[in-house]
Amino acid sequence: MSMTTRFIDGRETGLALGKILCVGRNYAEHAKELDNPVPSAPLLFIKPATSAVELETPIAAQFDHGEVHFETELALLVGERLSRVSGEQALAGIVGGGLALDLTLRDVQSALKEKGHPWERAKGFDGACPLSRFVPVPAGIDWRALGFRLDIDGKRQQTGDTGDMLFDIPALLEEMTRTFTLEPGDVVLTGTPSGVGALPRNAELSLALSLGLEAVTQTR
Ligand code: ZN
Q1: How far, in Å, is the centroid of ligand 1 from the Cα of 71?
Q2: Å from CA of 73 to ligand 1 middle
Q3: From the CA of 192, how far away is ligand 1's center (Å)?
Q4: Could you tell me which residues are beta bridge partners of residue 99?
Q5: How far is the CA of 30 from the centre of ligand 1 (A)?
Q6: What's the gap in Å between 198 CA and the centre of ligand 1?
Q7: 59 near 220, Cβ under 8 Å?
Q8: Domain 4-218: top CATH class
Q9: Which end of the chain is more exposed for a tag (fewer CB within 10 A), N or C?
Q10: Could you give the CA distance from residue 130 to residue 20 in angstroms, rounded to a whole number?
């Protein structure tokens, strides 16, 4: 059974979590820090619903497979079926905003990339997507002016500003729905800003999104 998605007041959204559609290298500074070229079209990949866990659950990632990198990302909860729609139409189908960690087995991913193999083992494993509760989308929201951050043990690690995205949210959703139908309960991860790094063990992670979301979790 897939995870139940909830609003920040604990209410169920009524949407069972589906697939998690993600974009790589959507912030120039992050592409640069990993020596990746800035893409001319969004680099898309999918994490399965089984990779998701509630953000507040202590993270027991696969620490025996090399470095586990954290990538803090704005997460969008899809409320209606979206297929080949414009960016504006797609935005109307987003019912919640939250945060996710796109956990990545970086050493595994580097080895797979070298061989030209798919990334699923590095990004789609069980527990690879700690996911917060969702804030209902406020009327008149400016998707280009959202801020978010990650602190680890009280030290700022990542700050994100959706105004810095290479492909903004409407453009991203339009491009995604050309290839992948988004269904109610699917989640879109919008890419990580710079500052990614190896997740330390026995640490406290504190995340915040300017929609009024704060969440705390631990690593084991
Ligand atoms: Zn990512």
Answers
A1: 5
A2: 7
A3: 5
A4: 74
A5: 10
A6: 14
A7: yes
A8: alpha beta
A9: N
A10: 11
Centre of ligand 1 to C-alpha 191, Å, is: 5
Q: Using the CB atoms, write b or e for 176-210: b if 16+ within 10 Å.
A: bbeebebebbbbbbbbbbbbbeebeeebebbbbbb
Rounded distance from Cα 23 to ligand 1 centre (Å): 6
Is the model's pLDDT at 172 over the cut of 90?
yes
- pLDDT bucket at 168, cuts 50 / 70 / 90: very high
Strands (E), the chain: 4-6, 12-16, 20-24, 43-47, 52-54, 68-70, 72-78, 94-101, 104-105, 129-131, 135-136, 147-152, 155-161, 187-189, 197-198, 204-209, 213-218
**Residue 153 carries which DSSP code?**
T
State in Å: Cα 205 to ligand 1 middle.
17
Cα 24 to middle of ligand 1, angstroms: 5
pTM of the model: 0.96
CA separation for the pair 80, 72 (Å, rounded):
25
Residue spans per domain, the chain: 4-218
Question: How far, in Å, is the centroid of ligand 1 from the Cα of 137?
Answer: 22
The residue-averaged pLDDT of 178-193 equals 98
Distance CA 89, CA 118 (A): 31
